[in-house]
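subagent[fold] <- orchestrator: predict structure for attached chain, return tokens only, no commentary.
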Amino acid sequence: MNLDFDSSRLNKKKGDYAFGDSIHLADPSLQARAVEYKRNLSGRMRAVSGQDIPRIHAERGYYATRKYDGEFSLVFFNGEKLISVNPGGTVRMGLPCFAEAEKLLKAAKVKSCVLGAEIYMKVSPTKALAIQQVVSVLRNPKTEAETERLGLAVFDIVETDGEPVETLKKKFSLLEKWFGKGKLVHPVDHVITEKTEKIMEVFADWVIGEGSEGVVLQHDQANWYKIKLRHSLDAAIIGFSEGSEDRKGMLHDLLVAVMRNDGTFQELTRVGGGFSDDDRREIVKELKKSIVPSDYVAVNNDYVAYEMIAPGPVVELSCLDLIAESGRGGSVNRMVLKYDGKRYSALSRMPLVSVISPQFIRIRDDKEATVEDVNIRQVSEMVPVVAAEKSAEDPAGDPSTLLERAVYTKTMRGNLMVRKLLLWKTNKEDRPDFPAYVVYFTDFSPNRQTPLERDIRIATTEARALKMFEKMAEENFIGGWEKGGK
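subagent[fold] -> orchestrator:
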């Protein structure tokens, strides 16, 4: 297992801690493994609330494991060193908890392994903001001592010495053997549960009593479950869809939004559950009085367009989880809308969250669709949301910067053919609707059926973009093409 990294591309922080982009790994496919692992794990997991515990067939014998509020990563160890790679492509090394894990694995004579783990805050005085603290320290620790507050909770052995570990019993046995005496690295807290009462007891102790993020039930053959407390949010109704046929005149679902500090509305989620039939009739009746025009069209899961309404009323909703990352580690982008008092217009998509299992609780007659009552901070205080404080109406910003340019020409049958390859930095990388770098290739040949052909590639780092530029140049500027021209 080659874990070498281009040291010149490392972002070095306090002590031995450093991080960088997975493209600079000797084996950049490690990120793909992290993405695939997370996708498979998410597909296997069912999210339920604490009140649904009695519906789980506990007698099958589950491993109940504590869910830590941190950064998920795959951890790779090759017998000498250990690194982590998250689905977003960030490689980390040199954390004190990593150094301890290396030492323990070497002592256990492990030749290589791949582990599923969470980097989390071991000492967290404000539990509700634990993930923000983890992100803050990982991004820019103020002192070396601050990195020592990060722990590594290992919940899975993907493989060891090149072989998979088939059963949970074997996995947790090995984890205890390797990390049972660790201080900064350790197996996730876990117990075997064969009765519903035991699961409820664990949930009450860890989640309600100690403020953990949740409980995960793992099983070798049966479904896995993620059990969490439901969150409560206040959001403004900005649209609705009506039922059809025998449900005509009844609500199908609501489109709700939170407000950003600049007064714009950002789509949060669709809410279709938690209503009584009386609620559905009364809500549709009232919302039809507030329909307004919109330049933006949103549709529900049945591809029925929402009727947009003047913002409000405010609803209280509950949900099982708020997830700020997509399966590939990128942000979850939602449309931001401007309402001018008469109609909606779309501005851009900006990072927010996926809302898991939203349920209607009640209409909040005591609140209005204002920045104070339905602010995006409700979300960003629970999970990190990129650019939550940024205005959606910022001007375009600095112009793009041209980094590389190549023009080649070729004459065939009296016709001049031109190929251009450009690389530029957009200077808008903090905006989710813009890529950081663009590689743009044009191929003009007047004797073709389609004279002008284009190829556009985007990249998140300059290194990625330069590799794309060089590869496209090698592929296209051969066989008689001469450099020159504009």
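orchestrator: received. Logging for downstream: The mean pLDDT is 89. Residues 401-483 form one domain.
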